[in-house]
Write a structure and sequence with these properties.
The complex is a heterodimer.
Chain A (H helix, E strand, L loop, with lengths): L1 H19 L1 H4 L2 H35 L3 H5 L2 E9 L4 E3 L1 H8 L12 E13 L5 E13 L6 E14 L2 E16 L65
Parallel strand pairs in A: 1-6
Antiparallel strand pairs in A: 1-2, 3-4, 4-5, 5-6
Chain B lengths: L1 H16 L5 H40 L3 H5 L2 E9 L5 E2 L1 H12 L10 E12 L5 E12 L2 E14 L2 E9 L1 E6 L34 E2 L23 E2 L6 H8 L17
Parallel strand pairs in B: 1-6
Antiparallel strand pairs in B: 1-2, 3-4, 4-5, 5-6, 5-7, 8-9
The chains are: A alpha+beta, B alpha+beta.
Amino acid sequence: MSVRATMKGGLLLALAAVVALPAAAQDGDLRAQVVAAKHRVQLLEDQDAIENLQGMFGYYFDKGLWDQAAAMFTAKGSFEYGQRGVYIGPARIRQSMLLFGPQGLAQGYLNNHMMLQPVIVVAPDGRTATGRWQGMVQLAQPGANGIWGVGVYENDYVKEGGVWKIASLHFYVTGFTDYDKGWMKAAYPMAGQSALFPPDRPPSEVYRAYPSAYIPPFSFRHPVTGQSLRDIRQPADDVVGRP
Amino acid sequence: MMMTRLLARALLAAAAAGPAMAQSAAAQSTADRLAALDQRITRLEDLNQIERLQRTYGYFVDKGQWTQLSELFTDDATLEIGGKGLFLGKKRVLEYMQTAFGPDGAKEGVLANHMQFQSIPDIAAGGTRGWVRARAYVMSNGGWGLPLYENEYRKEGGVWKISRLSGPFTMYTNWDGWGKNALNNTWPDKFEPAPDLPPSTVYLTYPAYYIVPFHYPNPVTGKPFLADKAEAGAYAAPPGTKAQQAALKVGRLADGTQPIAEPPKD
């Protein structure tokens, strides 16, 4: 990562030198090539910035640093976790995070949300982006056994005033189980909407976690065929009423 | 850092030479430099793209999207997972997945997450071949697993595809964990379908270990590391020790092969 960041820094330097050459200034074709090259480097930098943005969110969220985590959203940004509903704007997002534990987490809490496997696609205009991440969760609360969790993030990002921010963070929880018992013996349902801090909107999609099966919709196209992956068939669920 | 310094030196040289050059020569040199830059940018994009392919492969495995998964491969791709043997061609990749793991789709009561991370991507000088070493951490309702990938990718008509997927296992265990249980998950006849070719390498999983050959040299010394290639490549003890040398000869058949485990009786 840092090697690639250094290389991109070098590329920008080299580009600046190319632009500065008097001969290039007189040649429209070369100028267009430089503009195109600059744009491609910009998109690479944007992808790196977004990867870091999401990773940084994770490190704050793990430790209950709700102030820091909530500040990463746009003014109308949204946060949705499992079936808890949608919270809109940094103030409400911060409040909803108290449902995961106190600010700074108290003793005996573990709130690890590891984020792996990013597929980030920056829009050609470099203003918005989407990201899919694999979520692996380790939870603990005082007096309770440890919990494993899994899920998928499908997030939207937007660049405002040259800074990438989270426009929408949607963590599709797909299962929670007991640390010792495992998936064959324990499957916990997701938390619903809070009575204490009700969400601004109900869940954007109603589904059940494991043992039901659910496929969080893909934001990106198939990398080889270029086909949309949005219409992948969902498994049937008699309880939810999905055929 | 070194890259930046090299670039700075090149730029200084260019600045000194620039004004003296005839205009056409300068334009030529600018075009050359732009072409070189284009190559470097393309390489960065390609590195990203083969990583993206590998991660997408993981998302498709998780949800049993076998048709979508097979579309990630070249027509002549090879696939070898665990000790199952080699499957030749995109069609056989699809047949393998659908026969071994059922029709397309996520299934109720099944969790089979293959979380992908720690990828080391590389692109060959020509810009049409690439490699990724990466690992998956499997969390399934059956337990835990650790495949390690050394894959090859090919750019066809401007599109990167998987041309070889090779995923030997490091460790498989049930939910009790590797302190209590180790599952040797490497025999070809464990489940249908039969492979087109036998396994390319016979190896053992934890508590023995196998060093998957590296597609790249040590990034600091620049020297390649080669594990004991002449032997089966399976280690019951650290390489270079007497115990390992002895283990390599245990149970070896007349043709030199080493049966790795008794398949289950059921």
